[in-house]
Amino acid sequence: MHSTSPTLPYTASVRRRLRGLAGLALCMLLAACGFHLKGAAQLPFTTLYTNVPQNSEFGSNLRRAITASSPDTRIVEDVTQAQVRLTQLSSVESLRELSLDAQGRVEEYELNLEFVFQVTDSKGHVVLPPTTLRSTRELPYDDTAVQAKQGEINTVFKRMQQLLIDRIVRHLASPDVRQAYAQSQDLPPADASEAADAPPPAAIPQPPTPWGSPRVGPGLY
């Protein structure tokens, strides 16, 4: 009678080696495809100013995301101390009726976010021209649970804002911005017309919603 026990450790060892080789091959394949794990993306500048209010949830989360992605980049409150300026040109948060039932009651809402911004350097050169980011979500509505649906709408808006912040940070770290900022360092100050500050964003009134419908929560401001 032959014992098979001596081959068990060998089999397990072979399997471990095969799994290791497979993992190594997968890593090499991902690297060849240009895949990178999500992590810090150091920005080409070390000081940044933004007119997005710091005391707003959106503003504080934006600042936190920038410093988390690029630890060497510092957010300054004095625009004259900043290498670049991220200017919010407009910001709109709204919802609209998407569908009604036979009784004319809202069955579904469409949630919308729109954020327009640009990036300029300290000499007034445009590093990133006015860029519009939009986000839209559809959400079922039940007028028998207004309070619960209002909370759900606010939660979805917060998630949409966070995704929008991630997109802003990716724009700041993009090759185009890096190249434009590097090239601007060798240029003289921009003309007064080019370097003029963007006008402050005007408050855009939210469209009225039907009686009993959920209210839009606090906006990006």
CATH class placement of the largest domain? Alpha Beta
* Strand order in the largest sheet: 2-1-3-4-5
How confident is the prediction overall: mean pLDDT? Answer: 78
Give a short account of the largest sheet: 5 strands, mixed
Give the termini separation.
81 Å
Q: Which structural category fits the helices and strands? A: alpha/beta
Tally of individual helices: 5
The name CATH uses for the topology of the largest domain is: Double Stranded RNA Binding Domain
State the total count of DSSP E strands: 5
Subunit structure: Component of the lipopolysaccharide transport and assembly complex. Interacts with LptD.
Protein name: LPS-assembly lipoprotein LptE
Pfam families: LptE
Function: Together with LptD, is involved in the assembly of lipopolysaccharide (LPS) at the surface of the outer membrane. Required for the proper assembly of LptD. Binds LPS and may serve as the LPS recognition site at the outer membrane.
Give the arrangement of secondary structure elements.
Blueprint: H1 7-32, E1 47-50, H2 57-69, E2 74-75, E3 84-100, E4 106-121, E5 126-140, H3 146-172, H4 175-184, H5 192-195
Parallel strand pairs: 1-2, 1-3
Antiparallel strand pairs: 3-4, 4-5
Helix pairs in contact: 2-3
